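Z., the sequence and structure:
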Amino acid sequence: MVRVRVLLVDDDALVRAGLRMILSSAEDLDVVGEVDDGARAVAAVHEHRPDVVLMDIRMPEMDGITATAAVRRLDAPPQVIVLTTFQADEQVMSALRAGAAGFLLKDTPPAEIVSAIHLVASGEAMLSPSVTRTLLSHLGDAHASERRRIAAQRLAMLTDREREVAVAVGSGDSNAEVAASLFMSEATVKSHVSRLLTKLDVANRVHIAIVVHDANLP
């Protein structure tokens, strides 16, 4: 059994205790450490080498957006899931753009928290396209045209096949679903996704979806 190492970053001790209790119920998840502020997250990642970080957005010394960006700049960084109390929140979108693989509401049912950690640890996305669109719509359109221009430039570098895979990922499809719809093996899909991450210069599948949506593709 492959065990997933999880680091908790939240300034509320009760939240951390609750998360630790929830995660202890999954036999393949290990809480390897916890810190009470984003400022200590990078050092904790170096010390504990987690696979996934659960990161609160609102913390007093360093917020989760800044901490997420710092963690994702590390060599072989862990996946980050941000914790928030609001679903359609500009700070959530900022955290995703900083490199987070997804977000969880703090009142998310325990089984869904465990499932989300498994998803991001395996490299899958945990955001549905409808949630991504909702988040994008709450940003307003002040910078929409610039985002669209940059996204179009990035997508222009792709082959037709890579573009098809990108659109499928942007629709929230898993590797298995992409493989079935585009008549290719899952191994080939994984190779395409890896190339997309490099060509689009993004951190994860959520970022592929954001680029697709920024470009206003289906």
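The domain at 144-214 is CATH 1.10.10.10 (Arc Repressor Mutant, subunit A). The mean pLDDT is 86.

Let me know what you think.
H.
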